[in-house]
Amino acid sequence: MLTLCLVTLTFSFLTPPLQAADTLRKYKALNFPGDSESFITFRPDMSPFSEDFSFCGWLRKDGSSASWPILLSYGGNELRMQDDGGHSCIYGVCTRLASKFTVSLGRWFHYCATWGSGSRMFREYLEGEMIASRATTEGRYLQPGLFFTLGNWGEGGLESLQLEGQLFNFNFVAREFSREEVEERAGEMCELGEEEVYRLSWMDILGAQRNGTVSEVDTECLKREEVVSRMDGARRRVEQEEVKLDRVRKQLDNILEGVERDTRKILGTEEGQNISTQVELSSNLNKKRRELTRLTSLLNQVAEILQGGEKRDLSSEDGGTSYSERDRAASKWDILYSNSYFNKEFTRQHSDQLRSSWDKVCDKLVGVTITRELIELMKSLDSN
Ligand SMILES: *[C@@H]1O[C@H](CO)[C@@H](O)[C@H](O)[C@H]1NC(C)=O
Ligand SMILES: *[C@@H]1O[C@H](CO)[C@@H](O)[C@H](O)[C@H]1NC(C)=O
Q1: Rounded to whole angstroms, how far apart are CA atoms 290 and 273?
Q2: DSSP 8
Q3: Of all protein residues, whose CA lies closest to atom 4 belonging to ligand 1?
Q4: Ligand 2: distance of its center to the CA of 58 in Å?
Q5: Ligand showing the shortest atom-to-Cα distance for residue 39
């Protein structure tokens, strides 16, 4: 099981982050090669922008071969911006801003146009700086349902109106940005900001049908965002692996618990019994063992006594010698102290009686241990 887990860990680190391509697409720029066949034109829903709008994004000029290089054309001159400021139009009225478009070729710059039906002011900004501002006709709103074209004019395909350069992160928002909001957006090209409502977004533009060889290209942002996104992905996976490792750790704990339980069973102790109980049990066992040793030794002594017929008092170590010493002091002649003989004349009859009783006694004594009780018994028998 552990081996399997480790294999899983190794391989999940090698798999590329999912969804990364999708979330990173918005960091792509569009390259317009500078021919009249290459442009984008479509008819998005522009009705949300009829009363207020802002149109901002990044532009990079790579050439200047066209007479009227169009960045954006909506309904011809309903809205028109050129990358050189040559014709800047709103609601069919155009002006020249060429003197303001001084950014050199190959350099990204921020362009923003704002308009509101309340202010009726059309304002244009370069790099966050307002370069032009003019009032529009009263009662005029942005007309919906017209062709929205990037990199050419009208419905596209016109000579001398093509764009040569790149566009990045151009969005239509249904709001008239303040000067500060424009400044903010002009700050950092790679910071795309929050999504907004009623927006014709860069993703929509990237998704629109293209003519010619307009292509998606990488920006520095994509490279940077790619790194950030990959780091995020890696961090997420590390977190996932930590969760997995935690699970493995818990499984190991369970296994160890099981081993402990089994060990207890093998030792014959119930779960829950603590160590002091076991010490107590073992000390009881030692007591019993000692007792058994003592009993065994006693039994051995008993067995010796039974086998050897040794005269030995078990309750007293020196008790065994006292009788023999006393016996030695006495003699068989002590019998003459008995009533039958003492202070009487010793007759033949006495002699026979004594002999026969001795013989009888001696016969009976063969194989019997002479004890005090026996002597006393014999004495009393003799005295009768
Ligand atoms: C643009 O592409 C569309 C679809 O392929 C085509 O119908 C149209 O004629 C093209 N426009 C020009 C001006 O080439
Ligand atoms: C352990 O067991 C003894 C006797 O069963 C009990 O008196 C003692 O409270 C127990 N100690 C713990 C820590 O469970």
Answers
A1: 25
A2: H
A3: 211
A4: 78
A5: 1
The pLDDT assigned to 226 comes to 75
Which residue do the tokens 């202010």 mark?
119
Low-confidence stretches of the chain (pLDDT < 70) are 1-22, 195, 197-198, 258-260, 262-284, 295, 298-335, 337, 357-358, 360-362, 364-365, 367, 372-384
Return the ligand 1 atom nearest residue 39 CA. Answer: 1
Q: What is the pLDDT of residues 370-384, one digit of tens each?
A: 776 666 666 665 554
Among 40, 155, 211, which residue has the most ligand 1 atoms within 8 Å of its CB, making it the best to mutate?
A: 211
Strands (E) across the chain are located at 29-33, 39-42, 52-61, 70-74, 79-82, 88-90, 93-95, 108-116, 121-126, 129-135, 148-150, 164-173, 210-211, 215-217
Is there a contact between 89 and 83 (Cβ–Cβ < 8 Å)?
A: no
Give the global pTM.
0.57
pLDDT digits (tens, 9 = 90+) for 185-213: 999 898 887 767 668 999 999 999 999 99
Helix axes 2-14, 220-267, angle to 10 degrees: 180
Contact 119, 179 (CB under 8 A): no
Chain centroid to CA 308: 80
Using CA atoms, how far apart are residues 34 and 111, in angstroms rounded to an integer?
A: 20
| 8 A C-beta contact, residue 206 and residue 192 | no
Q: Is CATH 2.60.120.200 the classification given to domain 25-217?
A: yes
C-alpha of residue 156 to centroid of ligand 1, in Å: 8
